[in-house]
Fold each of these.
Amino acid sequence: MIFQDLNEILKIIQKKRPNWIIQAEIEHTTLDVHFNGINTKEYLTKIDKIENDNQLKLRKKYLTTNRYLFANLSRPIDKVFSAKGGNRLFDNKSKSTKKKLTNITGGLPIRKWIENVQSNKCYTDPAGLVFFEVKENDLYPTLKSICSIFNYKQNGRLLEWVIFKPFKIEGKQGDFYRVVDNKKDRIINVVDNVIKEVDELKGIKQTFDNIFKKVPAIINSDILSSNLLYNESPFADVISLADHYLRTGTIKNLNEFVHGYPIFWRYLTDCKACQGTGQIKGKQCTLCAGTGNALNKDITDIIQIEKPESNEQKITPEVAGYITPPIASWQEMRAEMEWLSEFMQLTMWGSKLNKDVNNETATAAFLNVQPANDRLNIFSDAFEDMEQKMINFVSLFFNEKTGSISYGRRYLIEISDVIWEKYLNAREKGSAKITLDYLLRQFFQTEYVNDVESLVVAEKGIKLEPFIHKTDEEI
């Protein structure tokens, strides 16, 4: 889309920031709390009619963020970027495009940048943008948070136009906005509902022709929210559970601190220096501070009890002991948190992870692989689409033919032991050689997922050995 005149832009600005942008910003803040642990203290609120201000203050002081929880919950997505298969096809003449993709920004190739940088924003800032900036005959992607955006009109995952939030310039009147459409990337100034385009500021050009001929932006997430107004996170379904998990965790932490220390008690004994009088030669005993009691430990750590008289009941044991704190409450909280974690896992992946309790070194595997594979395909679609659109913008910039990419879909989320059992069962049942080759290749790909050299040797062995599925006796 191209703005025909500045008044079109002014009308959008006069309507102010739309509610969906504000809602998307609120959701971004919440996702940032859970996924990245940012501003978690500020996110916690007082539990009405149950908690006082001091308790809330302590909960904030000793909180554990949910960052580790979401790191574990998102761990299977690593398989999207390590999956086997896929391809990249480029025209031989697209040399500048291919070179740029090996260092899209910060020394990272495009796929590694998506994996290490952009993926986090897909989860936590889904309505934000990957926005290409141009500088000195080169381009590079940047991340524009939804917090920095005044308004935009989307077309699928691309934009018709975008207006960034206003800023002030010292010595200048009114608000300044950056506006990008299919024709121009410009700065406009609004003063008392009068709009004008700013050609330059302090001798620096501010308005440029858009060399892409389209807004060089891609929305971080490809998931449209239920109200169809903005894009939301793939983790949106578990956020209320994450709130519950965070709240339970902070209450548990507080209980552990308040009630977690065994309390030592003992009967009071006379001070050896003053023989229990509290004074030595008419002056206060310095050893017992005038109490007449032996204080060989910090009195704040001990409950000291007067000795009972001969006719009074004694506490058992007779000299000293410990008061063991009740732990049932926070054990229940831990059980609740474990249940919440498993429920979030089931919600996200359609299956729960199972770990062999008899083998502490065993890697956890999904009980049901197919739902997890289906979910991983959704993530692959999203990141493949992001990379393809980024490649398209790079090709447009260099005026070269764009390439095409596809992500691998063999995720290898089953552990090697499980695949080996499948292979042995298939071999015993006399399955076709092509099936056995496939299972054996899967086993080696999983076993040597981080050892490329050993994987190459193993896969070559499958091709070279004509009777690889037969025993020596059978041969």
Amino acid sequence: MNKLLLTLALLAGVISSNAADKNGFGEILSVKKIWDAGKHNAFTDLIRFKGKWYCTFREADDHVGGDGKLRVLESKDGETWTSAALLAEEGIDLRDPKLCITPDNWLMITAGGSVYRGTKTLQGRQPRVAFSRDGHIWTPTQRVLGEGDWLWRVTWHKGRAYGVSYDTTPLPAGAKDSAGRGEEWKLKFVESLDGVNYHLVTTLAVPDRPNETTLRFLKNGDCVALVRREGTKEHPDKHAWIGVAQAPYKEWSWKPAGVQIGGPNFIPLPDGRMVAAGRQYNPSPVGAKTFLGAMDLASVKPQLIFPSAGDNSYPGLVWEKKILWMSYYASHEGKTSIYLAKVKLN
């Protein structure tokens, strides 16, 4: 009888494991809520710095408006998290913080700086950056680029910071962009030697209101971009686009990713594969979900869906000791909270 029970238990374990990994991509090992103290906790990023974990996100009263603050959490083991810092700027909604490490080993935050003046209508914006040696003490947030810009994420490569800034300032009435379309937003590929002073490398010819963009660099030096698109009335297609360019990154080729993505993020793995994550938009009643999946230079394929609903996504990704760590936020438990997931990939 004991042998029979053991056999059944082992068989059940195999079936359960296969069910969790039915797509052959990987399996979710754990999902844990690590913060919910703010009224609205959202837009995460994650990094490993000087032997510790750091997770950052925005705390505010709501998804839009108010004076959003940037919370930075710290953990030695990825299990117990404590608040290391809270960055704020009076009258400014600091949004979408992103973490990176400078060549001289400073922890750097890039964020949007929006102005609402007590309304829900955007009155103005300009990107912000701040730096820290230990994750606790930060330089004051300082403005970069120009009014109307949003430098959504910075990635360092060979001593230079690269990023894509988008500008939603409306074109003059009747004006068209370089592709002959109206209702467009501008997308600029920029670089910097210090993370503060940026210059334009090229504009990116991505149509139909492109915006949030993550850049990563492959082992051969090529730069890959994953771009969110909102679509227009004339061209309602909202699928993200994938771009690739060789140094000096002025000539780009583009392909549709085949899926709409909010808060797009991706990382190359040591074996050359790429994995992407973000918000997947599904018809009701399923609605928006946070996903992870395989990515190549022509597509993104959502394969793992995480506990999430409603207001969610904006993941941070770190590959550590053959485990993919992912921060994200979601509202499926009643309020927007910050979660940390661990994933084993095949």
Amino acid sequence: AVVVFSGALRGAGDTFWAMCFSVSIHWLMFGALLVVLRVLKLDPKIAWVVMVLSFLCASVILFLRYRGGRWKQRRVLSAPVEVLATDHDQDFHATIDA
């Protein structure tokens, strides 16, 4: 779910928020693992549980951001794209010498 909602937000143009959230959640997970393994000296299985819970929490936060709909107001392109004018009278496959 983390990958799906994060990708959906990034694809919709909400890239800055998705990047900040991704960096923050990864540092928080790193800190949580340090505390669980080094400070509390708990079993690595507990560390796995902490990681799974972290991903579940991240999924919920990303889902709420997606569900909130603020990404709908983002503009993916800053200006309209101009269509290049082409000469449609020529044969498409014709060479320059023809």
Amino acid sequence: MVSIREILFATDLSPEADQAFEHVRSLADRFGASVTMFHVAEVPDHRFAHWAFAHGHEVWDHAEKLARECLERRAATLTAKHSVVLERNSSASRGVLDMIRTLRPDLTVMATHGREGLAHALLGSVTERVVQRSFRPILCVREPDHGGVLPYRRILVPTDLSPVSRFAFPMAALFARTFGAEVVGIHVVSPRSLATLSGIPAVELPVVPTEASLWSFLQADFDGASLVAQVHEGSVWDRICHTARVEKADLIVMSTRGHDSLGDRIVGSNTERVVRHAPCPVLVA
């Protein structure tokens, strides 16, 4: 059985993080969880000599003081037990990952900025880097396209029918039962290759499940929750995002299988692409 007793809120103090904070507040109240408000003050690596002189330390001391005051103002609005932690690090993602390893929270909440194109290729995303390396539940928050934030009323749960994909089911079921949400289970079948369509012998294609068999696969884990099942064909991450948009999902809950191909190493796994393009928050469990 999974539970949420400790929430880590990793914030960069941006407007997007303010939206994520509303999820933190609601989840802490609903689960009776304590909250750690955490911010990484990114500073240059002091191993480089040019940062060892002048007034650099004074600048960063002042920035850290302002950040702490901002965190404490937000934390004061929480009714849940909470603490404020601020640290300096030359890498925000490294700082968050170190905090996750130390605190071992049941859930980490972060905003995602959804960079596209060249900006994403050059800068990446702190949230995505944390998702790749934390191996603990991360709620990546962006405001749903259909408006509104809470409570979660419709949860989309993708599965490739593998044992690994079931790792996300307990957390999805906990959210569904806690919020009385409907669960939409989805399986996406990759499109047939051109070789197969032209009749050239190819590797044996996987069996395509029916929606009834997909429902049976999910039912044991979501017993007591309202559950529907859908089977689609196409690009996995694109169909997940499309279905979330059509169904007006408030939350996507999915696991990650990491990078399993050269293409994934170049452009990111399906999970990372869903985090980047989804029309609603994504919980990677």
